[in-house]
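Consider this:
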Amino acid sequence: MTDTNTSWDVESFVVEPEEGKTRFHDLGLPKALMHAIADLGFRYASPIQSESLPIVLDGEDIVAKAQTGTGKTAAFLISIIDTFLREPIEGKRRTGTPRALILAPTRELVVQIAKDAENLCKYTRLSVVSIVGGMDYQKQRDDLRQVPCDIMVATPGRLIDFLGQNEINLRKIEVLVLDEADRMLDMGFMPDVRRIVRACPRKELRQTLLFSATFTPQIVELSERWTFEPTRIEIEPEHVTTETVEQIVYITTAETKYQLLKNVINTRDLHKVMVFANRRDLCRDLVDRLIKDGIDAALLSGEVPQRKRIQTLDRFKEGKTRILVATDVAGRGIHIDGVGHVINYTLPEDPEDYVHRIGRTGRAGNEGTSISFACEDDSFLLPEIEEFIGRKLPCEQAPESLLEGSNGETVA
C-alpha cells in the first residue's frame, strides 16, 4: 500500500526534543516510513537504534552485541526500508530475487521480524516474504512466484531448500542481516549459513549487519569474514533488561520446588506465565504435573514438532493457554505481549540466558515480575548471574504459605 493519505504530515507527529535522546524525526527518514513509525508509536530511538541507525543509514556494516528486546529489529528494518525507498528499482524485476535477506534461527523469530517489516512497510510498495521450515512448502513457493520480493526473512534450512530448487537467487542482495548469530551457531546452522553467505554478492558489494547476544571468538571470526570494515557496537544487557522487571529469588529445596511453583501460580492467580527449566525432560514432567493438578500448561521445546510449536505459541499469545513451559533455545527471541511473570524453575547455567528469560516480561515499558527458585543444586549459579547483570538479586526463603501441601516428591 502506498502512502495515499496525503493529509498526513510529519508535522502532525509531535515528539518534543529531549536531551540525550534521538528522535526518529532527527534521522531524515522518508515520509512513508515516518508515517508507519508514528502509527507504531515509536517516539525516541532505543540505545541500539540511536547508535546503529546513523551508521547503517550511511550504508556501512556493523557488528552489534545486543539482546532481544533492545529494538534491534526496528533498527535494521528502518535502515533497509529507508535505502529501498530512496533507491527504487525501475522496470521489470524477476521474482525470487530479494534485495535484502534477514536470516534468523527460529520460525517464531522470522515470523515476528516479518510482521514488524510489514508494519513498517505499511505505506510503501515494498514486499516482505518469509521463508520458514515447518510450513507448507508449496504455498511459500507460490508466494515467492507472485511478486518480486524486496525483503526476505528466512530460517537457514528452508532457504537452503529453495536455493537448491533454484526458486531463490541471492546474487542481487544489497543488505544481508544475520540476526542472533550466536544462536544460529549454537543450533548448528553455520554450515547452511556459510552456503547462504557464499550465494550472496561479495562483502564489499553488499551491506552486512550482524547481531549477536555474545561476542565469542567464533562470532568475532565469522564477523571478520563476512563484514567489510564494520563499526562495532555493544549494548550492555543491564541497560536494557532489568529496569522494568521486579526480580525475586526464593531459596528452596529440590523437594519443594514443584509445590512452590503450583502455589505461586494458584495463590496469586497468575495467567500468561512463562516457566523456564534447563532440560527438555524436566519441562515435559512439569507440564504433565501441572495439567494433572488442573493448571492449563503447554510445552515449548526443541523436541516439539514445528507445527505444534506454532499452535502452542498462538494459543498462549491469545491467552487460551495459562502457562508456557520452555527451554532456553525454544524461548529465546519470542515476542509475546502481556507476559506478566517469568518463573525460573531452575537457574540457567549461562547468565546470559537469565537475561533472555526475564526479557520475556517487562517489555515495551510495561512492568513484569521474574521469580527464580534456587535450591542447593543451583544456588551456586547466583553470583555469576549477579555479576553479569551488575546488581544483587533479592533472595529470601520461600514463604511457608507457598510450600503448603508439599509431599516431598522431587521433579528435577
